[in-house]
Amino acid sequence: MDAGHVVDALLDAYALKDEGRTGWQLRGVDDPESVAAHSWGVAYLVLALGDRFRDDLPGVDLDRALRLAVVHDVAEAETGDVATRADSTAEPVDRDEKEAAERAAMADLAGPLPDRVRDAWEAYEARETPEAVLVKECDLLDTCLQAVVYERDDRYDPADGEPEAFAEYDALEEFFATTESRLRTDAGRVLFDQFRERYRTVRA
């Protein structure tokens, strides 16, 4: 493979470092995290909390899960971040269109790179392995933990975002609403309850 194509693919992927997380932007968070920062958070939760999921996910390989965590959102370097919403007034996302766009992006971003990059992304998308389920749980939980950080540090003002986009949820409650119903493991639900309780404590 031509070295220039490899460098181009790496440079394109590095756009993830500057791609802001749309949900936080909508809520008026001051200097919100990038998608790449979120990916680091997911990887850190895999490493720090992965053992707690072993009863739910027997045989889970945390090293393999870390590979999936690193690449799980890399397509958004090209497609941008699309927020998952619970508010019924939000415009629904066309899942098929989103998946097609992300697959096309991965063909560009991973094409010149070793197969393990695309393979890890495909495994995450399929959600058929313990590692993929673990990474998705941590993906969801990272958002809740980040909400605690923004609430604790008084980092947002809804008036600075798009208040009309949040008809049904106050403060950062929607981020917990989009998470709770999507968790698949008992361990994930226990951690969710702990994170939500901490959020409510710092908000009180």
Any overview of this molecule?
With 204 residues, the chain is mainly alpha-helical. Helix content is 60%, strand content 0%. The protein has ten helices and no strands.
Q: What percent of the residues sit in helical stretches (DSSP H or I)?
A: 55-70%
Largest sheet: none
From the helix content, strand content and strand pairing, which structural class follows? Answer: mainly alpha
Q: What string, H for helix and E for strand, traces the elements in order?
A: HHHHHHHHHH
Output mean pLDDT. 95
If helices are DSSP runs of H or I spanning 4 or more residues, what is the number of helices? Answer: 10
Rg measurement, Å: 17 Å
> What is the rounded distance between the termini?
56 Å
| Poorly predicted tracts of residues | none
**Total beta strand runs:** 0
Give the overall form. Answer: globular
Based on the structure, what is the oligomeric state of the protein chains? single chain
Q: What proportion strand?
A: under 5%
